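Batch 3, record 17
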Amino acid sequence: MSDVLIPRRDLDFLLGDWLRLDELLEAPTFATHTRDDVAAVLDLSERVAADLFLPVYKRADQVEPTLDADGVKVLPEIAAAVRGYAELGLFAAGFDEALGGMALPSLVCTASLAQFMAANLSASAFVMLTTANARLIAAFGTPAQIDAFARPGIAGQAMGTMCLSEPQAGSSLADIRTRAEPDGEDALGRRFRLTGNKMWISGGDHDVSDNIVHLVLAKVPGPDGQLVEGTSGISLFIVPKRLPSGERNDVAVAGLNHKMGYRGIPNCLLNLGERGGAVGWLVGEIGQGLPIMFQMMNEARINVGLGAAAVAYRGYRHALRYATERLQGRPLDAPRGVTIAPVPIIEHADVKRMLLAQKVYAEGALALILYCARLVDEHDDADAGELLGLLTPVAKTWPSEWGLVANDLAIQVHGGYGYTRDFDVEQLYRDNRLNPIHEGTTGIQALDLLGRKTLKSNGRGYAVLRQRVDATIARAEDDPRLAAYGELLADAWDHIAAVVDGLRPLDPAAALENATPFLSAFGHAVLAWLWLDQAVVAASLGDDAFHRGKLWACRFFFETEVPKIATWLDFVDSHSDVASAAPADIF
Amino acid sequence: MKILVPVKRVVDYNVKVRVKPDQTGVELANIKMSMNPFDEIAVEEAIRLKEKGIATEIVAVSIGVQQSQETIRTALAMGADRGILVTTDVAVEPLAVAKLLAKIAEEEQPQLIILGKQAIDDDSNQTGQMLAALLGWAQGTFASKVEPSGDTVNVTREVDGGLETLTLKLPAIVTTDLRLNEPRYASLPNIMKAKSKPIAAKTPADYGVDVTPRLTTVKVAEPAKRQAGIKVKTVDELIDNLKSVGVLS
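Prediction for the assembled complex:
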């Protein structure tokens, strides 16, 4: 619909040709859906994203949410866009039919959401938070809790949040201090009264929906009245803004955070229990809060990657349009003394380099997330589950880090214009800058990947990944254009395995001190695999410009990005203490 | 009241249309196709009449290649009740379409046929008028308001001088203009429900209509590129120039 959203041609390639949508639709879970249904869903998404979400992109940045005595108000057009999304039944797309959903594959829902995120990331955050919230309640809540709190979210009538961080504890959830005191039991389960402060709560209050369902982590005091140390004392509670009686719960907005970007959705500091304790119902068992919350966290992490990919893609589309329209300069090899008209800047080698970099980052990031969505759809397959777990920190981080680089290059292609607020690319950059931070920073993801998912894991995820990487290499061997990349890819993964072996004997602190460069290398090796895999498929489909573009992107990735892998890995392999040993007084 | 709504599959209005290198037509391979926007307005109007309790059944008809079924599905997802797909690989012309629709109207006996005033691919603006002539029914073209009451329908038309309101005896033909309504999106649940609505599969032969084109396309070409202008120094010079090319006297 709009030339700045994600081209349908690419989504059709990624879903249909590369990720074999037809095979997925043959699975019994999805057998009621056809390729035509998927096309209709993508048509609808593209159109509604262009009509409702895109036109308010800029204004939502200029007119921030406000807080007054009645609570938080968002830009009315943002509220209208989210309500429009709800009226079309899109919140329900991925839920089971028993819950009023459409049971569409995660792959299709993800592709649909990508368009909304490209059009307006912060408006789409209402969707991403609410669906993840409702899915958690649907998975772990009692039937009464599901009816009261998940169904309104699935219908898009009540928005959801996740309340983990506190002013003094964000990445370190073990240190949270919100207390939950037992307050009897009713039809909705074990009732508690919560007191504490929750920080960085996106959608913490607003006038998009009448009710808001908060999922809150808190600690239940022991018999001595003390909170249990560590994460094992954390429990999860449903704390609605409005109680089933219609009365306001004891949840107050203490303030709004004034953000660099991502401004369509308010970000709040919430005070629970200013008037004696916010009513909350326990989800699952006491002490099970964190493992349960991780279901929502993992989904949110992949969706953060999706948002980052979508915004990177949008920036690339803007840069591409500008580069084909903007006339500036002449070819370097133009004959002297002859008057030549200026050329579109896409003719210049350095602009092409910047466009290619954006192409591999943006399209690559989207491919990674859709691959993960396909793994979500294969949930009956244990291998797919292991691989998804291993790839989740990459899905969160790679699009966030490299999508931001793409947005930086989109500004660069626009030159001075890109630095002005008259164009969208500076806003895209500011919006995307949140993504390496929220839902677990890049540093936290690196610890997750190298610690929990590598050194402390049974290695099954790695085995599945290597098997799939080798299958891609084998398929690339038959194509003279791609065979050499297969060898480079095998080298990268052998190198990773050797580095990991070298880290195993170290004590945990030493092994993890350079976890972030390890994540960088691992992420690039995953993307090298996915680019080669896409190139193999594209090569088999034809020699038109679109498919040639995928091969060209693969070549660019192997020539310019893959060499970085060894640099990162050599540093990790040196077991350098240059960062960890740096005394604080040298700074 | 039964309403018949013909819907045409055309190149999506957002697609930048390109002429084929051999100049025989426009590029259709790998091009996004969707329902003619004027037909969407027709479907929407029929649905609104049904929601008001005036219409009882809406039948969407498409004539064209097999994939025109998707266009009917869109109409069904918006709220039409059933479809009729007349399949042909021939590039049908307005007269052939009008003849087929006349046969379908004889079978279906609708009280109202609402068509888009034209299709955005060939801009013919003929089918509704031809259909009215073939059936001998009254016609209200370029409608911006449609109000049936009893055995008549009031149609407000957009004409050069403003608005003209006609009272037509039913059954009648109405063709839609842009300002008649704003079509709805088909919601996700309705897209899924549309799958179980019936679509009858027909061919032109079933209706005994010969759809062979009567026109030959000689050549399709891009519009001529605009020539560069000239700069003039004074208003007088501008006026002289305009006079010399004959636009001022």
